[in-house]
Amino acid sequence: MSLDILNEKGTPLDRQVFTWREMAGQPYSKLDVDAFTRVRVILMNGIENGSIRFSHSCAQMNNGELRGHLARVRRIDHMQEVMVNWLNPADQSNLETTIGYEQVAIEVTASVAQNEPDPYLAQVYRFGMLEDFDHLYRYSALLDRLEGKDPNNILQNYTDIMPGRPTAVEHRDPMDDLRDHYDRKSAHPISKLNALTIMTGEYQTRTFYMNVGPTYSDPVARQLYAEIVTIEEQHVTQYESLLDPGESWLERWLLHEATEAYNYWSCLQYETNPRIKAIWERFLSYELGQLHYVMDLMKRIEKRDPAEVLPAELPDPIKYESHRDFVRQVLKNEVNLRAKGSQFVDASQEGQESIRYREQLNSQGSPSEIAAAGYMWQPGTELAGRVVEMGAYRRAQ
Questions:
Q1: How far apart are alpha carbons 249 and 228 in whole angstroms?
Q2: 257: closest CA among 33, 38, 72, 14?
Q3: 172 close to 345: Cβ distance less than 8 angstroms
């Protein structure tokens, strides 16, 4: 059943309250949580973080009464983000969480690419997805070799572990990361929500890798995080360029609120953990309250009807399910695409600027190639495979 966001008013702001015990509540168990619950937790932290980042930027660029309204809503968003992010358990290593981040980037982007009505935007999402698909393979090799853990314990067979578009060739000239933006007047509302969802998700991935990368002493791990976080910076550049710069600050704020509501509503449709489902339900109501707060501001300050911007009903939810077949098909058909300006071309037609940029960056070796040299995922880690091989060898003697 869809949701009428223009008439569902949610929880008023003055009733959106928290306690410390709620915010730092019980985390999920990494041993028995469904992989898609972890995916939703990671994504919703990114969605909240993106909304807060926008709010701060807006406050820095606007004077007058808007700052007060932004501060009031932003404080609630902050507490929501804390409560969501603190669901991640302490016994989940940063590298295991990294595997979860890449699963978000693959499965959520695959869902978005399939429900995106604009063919060009769908192509952009497929292009980025194949690069994150390769990141998962490289980090999986690192998890296996550095911590002796099977990445499939995190992925739970929903997502393949195999090479995508090689990370070493993903480095591009900055001009080749810019894309054409949607038209705010003619774009389908879901196109706007999709762009904000993927952009904010990628931004939090960049932030997470920037923070955890330097904490490793292993030189290959440090270099791999440095390499992939640089691709995530490219991805943020790519996805933020999809947003129409002609949107007013209030219009963009309204879209952030709608994106938050849409994503909590999507989580609610698929969540199997009753305790976490209650959080999604509560925060959907909070976001509807915040959305209507901003709708009233738009009516009063810009004299505009929010219905010009928002869909009457939320579109189909993000599908939290395996998109293995879709990803494999995209991999088969589009792995050799490269970006040239805002368009996608065959690798043979790539621009010289990106080739020169990449050759210099990889001139002392590629961390992603070193980390995954000879790696092929097998159940129970590489070490378990060697034990089997040794047993077969001894039996043959």
A1: 31
A2: 72
A3: no
The reply to whether the predicted model has a pTM over 0.90 is yes
Distance of CA 99 to the CA centre of its chain: 12
Residue type, 319: K
Q: Name the percent of the chain in helix, strand, coil, to the closest 5.
A: 65, 0, 30
CA 377, 379, 381, 387 dihedral sign is negative
- The DSSP code sequence of 14-81 is GG----HHHHT-PPPPTTTS-HHHHHHHHHHHHHHHHHHHHHHHHHHH--TTHHHHHHHHHHHHHHHH
The pLDDT of residue 15: 98
- Residue 85 to residues 48, 149, 343, 396: CA-CA distances in angstroms? 10, 23, 36, 52
- Give bridge partners of residue 339 from the DSSP assignment: 344
Q: Could you tell me where the DSSP H helices lie in 213-311?
A: 219-240, 249-270, 274-297
Among residues 132, 134, 131, 129, the alpha carbon closest in space to that of 111 is found at: 129
Q: Do residues 257 and 287 touch, judged by C-beta distance below 8 A?
A: yes
H or E element, residue 346:
strand 343-346
Is there a contact between 261 and 11 (Cβ–Cβ < 8 Å)?
no
Give Cα separations from 277 to 139, 262, 272, 385 (angstroms): 30, 15, 7, 39
Residue 395: predicted pLDDT = 73
Task: For residue 107, give the nearest of 321, 333, 316 by alpha carbon.
Answer: 321
Which secondary structure element, helix H or strand E, spans residue 206, and what is its range? helix 189-212
pLDDT score for 1: 65
Residues of the chain scoring pLDDT < 50: none
